[in-house]
Amino acid sequence: MIVKYSPVFNSEKMFVYEFENDKIIAKLFFLNSKKWEEKEKDTFDFSKLGDGKLESVNTNLSINPILNADRKDGILTVTLIKLHGIDAIYEERYPADEVIV
Q1: Which of 48, 69, 79, 97 has the smallest CB count inside 10 Å?
Q2: DSSP labels for the chain?
Q3: Which long-range contacts link 70-74 to residues 24+ away (Cβ below 8 Å)?
């Protein structure tokens, strides 16, 4: 799986992602009194996605972290939102793509 990130400023929320084969677990944390608390969680399973682009992804999260997903020649590519705060370092504001094995 190739994961691309689209950085978005948000100083009060943060996504943490876990990857397992063609599954993505997205945890949404909220800043509460200077402490991060996990408030929402959803799992996205792309294992049954054949070659082609997925037009939309449903979620129970208040922010949909999946901007797009497609599979070409068997390789899954997903673009995820990467939330960052005002003091984010360069790597958080301009995240590199990842290859998940």
Answers
A1: 48
A2: -EEEEEEEE-TTEEEEEEEETTEEEEEEEEEETTEEEEEEEEEEE-TT--SEEE-----SSSS--EEEEEEETTEEEEEEEEEE-TT--HHHHSPPPEE--
A3: 71/46
CB 87 within 8 A of CB 9: no
Q: Which tens digit of pLDDT belongs to each residue from 9-55? A: 999 999 999 999 999 999 999 999 889 999 999 999 999 999 999 98
Span 53-70, pLDDT tens digits: 998 899 999 999 999 999
Which residue is it, tokens 């969680």?
41
Which positions ≥6 away from 78 have C-beta within 8 Å? 1, 2, 3, 4, 24, 46, 66, 68, 69
Domain residue extents for the chain = 2-99
